[in-house]
Amino acid sequence: MLLAGCGGTAGGGTGSGGTGTASTPAGASARAAAAREQLERNTIVPLEGEAPTPGLPVTVDSSDGRKVTVEDASRILPLNGGVAEIVFTLGLGDRVVGRDITATFEEAKNLPLVTKAHDVSAESVLSLKPTVVLADTDTGPDEALDHIRDAGVPVVVLDPATELADVSTRTTRIAEALGVPGAGQALNERIDGELAAARANVPEGSRPKVAFLYLRGSAAVYLIGGEGSGADSLVEAAGAVDAGKASGLDQPFTPITSEALVKAQPDVILMMTKGLESVGGVDGLQEIPGIAQTPAGLDRRVVDLEDGVLLGYGPRTPLVIDILVDRIHAK
Q1: Residue 140 phi, psi dihedral angles, 5° rounding
Q2: pLDDT mean for each 10 residues of the chain (331 residues)
Q3: Domain termination residue (choose one: 127, 146, 179)
Q4: CA count, 13 A, side-chain hemisphere, 116
Q5: Which Pfam families has this protein been placed in (predicted)?
Q6: CA–CA separation, 191 and 38 (whole Å)
Q7: 3 Cβ partners below 8 Å, 6+ apart?
Q8: 3-state secondary structure 279-294
Q9: 104 DSSP β-pair partners
């Protein structure tokens, strides 16, 4: 995570769980330092205690309109990195037999990869003999999922997570599909507590405007987030205003123009790390027309977080809020 123009980042700490500190700069900084350390380790923190034992069979609603019966959760294959994080955090990581390209945390990185680019290979999936597959509505191609179903493997499809409220819904659905609803409730309680502790450190009277920019310089993709971008929910949870949304952008993403940036007038720019790197860092970002004319550009206030974590909306989302609360309110 990089913050340009507002001092360095602190180190140390052991994660963001537990009770929060009073709303003070020291409290926010301590939690942000611990969160940053946890994210740098890139590991999952499972629920405390013994791993849950699935109570199966269960029949659940799938987001593709089907009802799916899961009889065996001994070989789980999540086809989404955020879903995989939830499975591991529930304590079922030793049952996971493969991974999607977006599952980049340490516990999953040595598992067999079953995607080519972002497309699922049905042959790779079936070679791992999964007993249940967890997918998103945007997992594809459809033919691959049909092939997996035709082979007799239950496929539970979930709605994508695009806002903070989706974290608990997604956790509940995954836990139910795997026959561990109690673990899902415990995880939701843990996440709720961590989020509350993070948000308790929002300074009174501070409402900076934050613009989320999605950039891929090598592909000439330059977008500003608006309502429904996914980042707007995080920005608001951290006690700030989504600059794109506030300026009237009612689509998730809009091509960046000087006029749009000047109208948005962000105090802080939020980005994914690889996106910032793709334009040459903060110096390269300043070359994009309109950036240097915003308060964020003038002060070089840019916050970036690792791509798979920032919009992951899963068990590590409280760490994101801890960092945002500290960094976007910094003077």
Answers
A1: -160, -175
A2: 37 37 66 94 95 98 98 97 96 97 93 89 97 95 97 97 94 98 98 95 95 95 96 97 96 95 96 97 96 96 93 94 94 67
A3: 179
A4: 7
A5: Peripla_BP_2
A6: 15
A7: 9, 301, 302, 303, 327, 330
A8: CCHHHHHCCCCCHHHC
A9: none
State the CB neighbour count (10 A cutoff) for residue 281. 14
pTM: 0.88
Identify whether residues 38 and 92 lie together within a single domain.
Answer: no
Residue 87: CA count within 13 A, CB half-sphere: 31
Domain that includes residue 151, residue range? 58-179
Q: Which amino acid is at 156?
A: V
Q: H or E element: which one contains 303?
A: strand 302-305
Burial of residue 220, with CB atoms counted within 10 A of its CB: 0-12 exposed, 13-18 middle, 19 or more buried? exposed
Total count of domains within the chain:
2
Distances in whole angstroms, Cα of residue 85 to Cα of each of 51, 90, 315, 329: 15, 9, 7, 29
Same domain for 38 and 64, yes or no, is: no
Residue 113 is encoded by which pair of tokens? 């990869």
Q: Quickly tell me which residue has 């990185």 as its tokens.
A: 109
End-to-end CA distance of the chain: 17
